[in-house]
Specification:
about 425 residues; mainly alpha; globular
Length: about 425
């Protein structure tokens, strides 16, 4: 009897322990939900989840490939005056406005317009535009992953003309340019014109022939290895839209990987994306600091920074400069896209939204200015190394991060390492904006 009684007690004890363990696991899994004010939609888990998410959303590719070039083209340091003016007058108030009613209502960009149903179409417009930009950004992430995977080589493939996709027009910048082709064609032109004069009595015909040959020679333009890698290997550009080209397996796999990464980051909503941003929002700053420190120590970097920051005060009298400053502020802070409303809707009701609305635009604009140092110091170094005029090197948009900067990286020691760091930074910037 005593043996069976003890066995029964042991079984009951084991069941109680299992029950307690299951209850503990259940309570731990629902602990974050119990602390949420909004039981249906949930709230941000950590204190800095919202702040880092908004910084990652605002700081994107435009800070790297658009602002530095705009600053250079529109008066250097003088461009900062209209830029900061529109930041204070337009950027911060708009960010505060969207965050305020997003946090107050705890609703999405569409349903938040219950406060004024007449403007509900604005919410639909925000969602449609954001969806289109997500597709566009994922294509950029695809190209970035393709470059990133090809950076794990001892010799970067866009650094020379010894590849299958290179043709006779490929030439390293500064070593062989269009003047060489022109000189060769000028000699041919001279010999051809002399022959024409010998065999034709009409000088008018000879002149026309020489003009035609001269025009043909002018069309022979050289391309750098990075340009041909971008156009002939990555994009494989065709002659026109009527030629669709073929399906690229490598790019298709990179595109699939980009979508999988985005899905994994958003699988559990703000509970998962709020953790991802601790890496994706901070890693670009680490790489930017490394690139700036390395860039300013290179020969010619001072010339690049000079072109970037030295003010041209006469530019302030042009309306175009003020217009581009306003455009960049609206684009950069992410107002009217729906993202700020969405992220603020997961805040707790008493969150200090005014503080966030001031800090986030300041960090965003400061990042743009700091990123310009990393970009223009390297471009100045490349112009110095190749002996090419600075104006012929500088670029913006995809051409900057997929042509000019990769070409500059090939001239650095241990270039694959710098390529990996650079494209990892571009990937995290694009991923943050995507999320």
């Amino acid at each position: 009897m005593s043996g069976s009684y003890s066995t029964q007690n042991t079984d009951e004890g084991c069941e109680k322990v299992k029950h307690i363990e299951s209850q503990t696991r259940l309570s731990s899994s629902t602990n974050s939900m119990e602390s949420d004010e909004n039981k249906v939609r949930g709230n941000w888990t950590g204190r800095f989840d919202f702040l880092l998410s908004c910084i990652g959303y605002a700081v994107g590719l435009g800070n790297i490939w658009r602002f530095p070039y705009l600053c250079y083209r529109n008066g250097g340091g003088a461009f900062l005056i209209p830029y900061l003016t529109f930041l204070i007058l337009c950027g911060m108030p708009l960010v505060f406005l969207e965050m305020s009613y997003g946090q107050f209502a705890n609703l999405s960009p569409i349903t938040v317009w219950k406060m004024s149903p007449f403007f509900k179409g604005i919410g639909y417009g925000m969602v449609i535009i954001s969806g289109m930009v997500c597709i566009y950004y994922n294509i950029i992430l695809t190209w970035t992953l393709y470059y990133l995977f090809n950076s794990f080589r001892s010799v970067l493939p866009w650094g020379n003309c010894n590849n299958d996709w290179n043709d006779e027009r490929c030439a390293l910048r500064g070593e062989q340019n269009t003047s060489n082709a022109t000189n060769i064609n000028v000699s041919v032109l001279s010999n051809t014109t002399t022959t024409v004069y010998r065999h034709l009595e009409s000088s008018t015909i000879a002149t026309n022939v020489s003009t035609m040959i001269g025009n043909a020679s002018a069309k022979v333009l050289k391309q750098t290895p990075s340009e041909q890698y971008w156009q002939k290997n990555v994009l494989q550009l065709t002659s026109g839209i009527e030629e669709m080209g073929e399906l690229r397996l490598e790019l298709s796999l990179c595109l699939l990987l980009a979508w999988v990464v985005v899905f994994m980051c958003l699988a559990k909503g703000v509970k998962s994306s709020g953790k991802v941003v601790y890496v994706t929002a901070t890693f670009p700053y680490l790489v930017l600091i490394i690139l700036v420190v390395r860039g300013v120590t290179l020969p010619g970097s001072a010339n690049g920074i000079y072109h970037y920051l030295v003010p041209k005060w006469e530019k302030l009298g042009q309306f175009k400069v003020w217009g581009e400053a306003a455009t960049q502020i609206f684009y950069s802070v992410g107002a009217a896209w729906g993202g700020l409303i969405t992220m603020a809707s997961y805040n707790k009701f008493n969150n200090n939204v005014l503080r966030d609305a001031i800090v986030i635009p300041i960090i965003n604009c400061g990042t743009s200015i700091f990123a310009g140092l990393a970009i223009f110091s390297i471009i100045g170094f490349m112009a110095h190394e190749t002996g090419v005029d600075f104006d012929k090197v500088v670029n913006q948009g995809p051409g900057l991060i997929f042509v000019v900067y990769p070409e500059a990286i090939t001239k650095l020691p241990i270039s694959p390492l710098w390529a990996v760091l650079f494209f990892l930074m571009i990937f995290t910037l694009g991923l943050d904006s995507q999320l």
